[in-house]
């Protein structure tokens, strides 16, 4: 199910049509709508919340109060959060400090490499050495280079 505004999603939830296992996609590019969506997710509980290009909604200098609440207390609401970003240095430390695992593709920007150096001094060199479409799974000091996913 795909929605383009939070109001339509709320109507869908109120009508009792949303099930726990049902994937829902909502395309929004509005800070206030994102904050409202975070409130909906916290209220609904037991969800996997995926945010593509999270740096649009979350940065070191700006973060919705509702998203911050979700980041810090998601375990109490049984909410798992998956985010993507092209620039990890542009994401708030609130989010990255609560991240269990990173999937890292090739990055060349110095600030981003410095960010990963702060996590583990070996990461920047491993990132620079990545072949095209390969990635690193980084989880609590474990660095593992992965091959591209094959859809064949």
List keywords for this structure.
alpha/beta; single chain; Rossmann fold; two-stranded parallel ribbon; three-stranded antiparallel β-sheet; 152 residues
Structure description:
By secondary structure, the chain is an alpha/beta fold. The protein has two domains: 1-99, 3-Layer(aba) Sandwich (Rossmann fold), CATH 3.40.50; 102-152, no CATH class. Helices cover 38% and strands 18% of the residues. The protein has six helices and seven strands; from the N terminus they run βαβαβαβαβααββ. It has helices spanning 6-14, 31-44, 65-77, 93-97, 110-119, 123-128; strands at 2-3, 25-26, 47-51, 79-83, 102-104, 135-139, 142-146. The strands form three sheets. Strands 5-6-7 form a three-stranded antiparallel sheet. Strands 1-2 form a two-stranded parallel ribbon. The longest helix is centred in the first third of the chain and has 14 residues, at 31-44. The protein is globular and about 50 Å long. The model has no long low-confidence stretch (mean pLDDT 87).
Quick synopsis:
This protein has 152 residues and is an alpha/beta fold.
**What is the annotated CATH architecture of the largest domain?**
3-Layer(aba) Sandwich
Helix content: 25-40%
The structural class is: alpha/beta
Helical run tally:
6
CATH topology of the largest domain: Rossmann fold
Radius of gyration: 17 Å
Poorly predicted segments: none
**What's the end-to-end separation, in Å?**
27 Å
Strand count? 7
Q: What's the level 1 CATH class of the largest domain?
A: Alpha Beta
Please indicate the percent range of residues in DSSP E strands (runs of 2 or more): 15-25%
């Amino acid at each position: 199910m795909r929605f383009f505004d939070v109001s339509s999603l709320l109507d869908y939830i109120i009508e009792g049509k949303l099930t726990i296992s049902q994937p829902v996609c909502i395309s929004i590019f509005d800070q206030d709508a994102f904050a409202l969506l975070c409130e909906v997710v916290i209220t609904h509980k037991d969800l996997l919340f995926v945010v593509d290009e999270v740096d649009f909604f979350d940065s070191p200098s700006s973060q919705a109060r509702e998203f911050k609440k979700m980041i810090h207390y998601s375990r109490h609401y049984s909410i798992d959060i998956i985010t993507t970003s092209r620039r990890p240095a542009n994401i708030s430390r609130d989010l990255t400090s609560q991240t269990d695992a990173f999937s890292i593709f090739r990055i060349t920007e110095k600030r981003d490499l410095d960010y990963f150096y702060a996590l583990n001094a070996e990461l920047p060199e491993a990132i620079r050495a990545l072949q095209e479409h390969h990635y690193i799974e980084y989880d609590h000091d474990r660095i593992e280079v992965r091959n591209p996913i094959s859809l064949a």
